[in-house]
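Chapter review. Work through the record for Phosphogluconate dehydrogenase (NAD(+)-dependent, decarboxylating) before attempting the end-of-chapter questions.
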Amino acid sequence: MELGLVGLGKMGGNMRERIRRAGHTVVGYDRNPALADVHSLEELVGKLQGPRVVWVMVPAGEATQATIDELAGLLEPGDVVVDGGNSRWTDDEKHARELAAKGIGFVDCGVSGGVWGLQNGYALMYGGEAVHVDLVRPVFDALKPEGDFGSVHAGRVGAGHFAKMVHNGIEYAMMQAYAEGWELLEKADSVTDVREVFRSWQEGTVIRSWLLDLAVNALDEDEHLEQLKGYAQDSGEGRWTVEAAIDHAVPLPAITASLFARFSSRQEDSPQMKMIAALRNQFGGHAVTKKP
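Structure tokens for Phosphogluconate dehydrogenase (NAD(+)-dependent, decarboxylating):
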């Protein structure tokens, strides 16, 4: 089939290649002309035969909204737009309404796989009406990993990005657990080879996972992670997961704590810890460390 793909960065560029390897035609557009097959969205749409499918892989928020707005003026009834970025599920509902008013279908798709997706395939979680999903299915089949798993029609519009959001929330908590275990092992004098302890967990243990494999890769590159600064950004999906948990009255203590741990990483001199130190000194006479 033919596909228009908007956004050819780390993910989009590899997705284009994987889809082409499966025998499909991909016309790609990116603001960077060195990456693009065409010079504009108008040219991209003009090169596709109806019913057209255009997959958007640009940053969530204003960039996605602007792209969908422009496509709404270029596409025709019966065409379908897929948002494969990390949009919030509530935005999906808005985009679907706007496009439906012009007879254009909409599918939201959460995509996981990162820079390894070209080689291993991408896990796909998508939401939308069955008629629109079926039009995109050859692309889903090209992108997904080999085998029976890795692709799911999660439900109505918004379900794909909601599922991906929860996936990322779980990912936050898993990474935090590995990080805490690694730090504790590093602090123990009796443990002389933390990297090999992590490597030993890769087979036969209940905590083995791809994240563990990636942790071992990182330790092979920098055994004690001495080249890194203890700062971790968050993509926003961890925040949305916690907000959704509040809305649904679902307790998420592990995921919430892992999100807050990201925030603490950005404080070189934590104001909260100043108060904790002051209180410990006041009630127990515990020593405090003062600035020079």
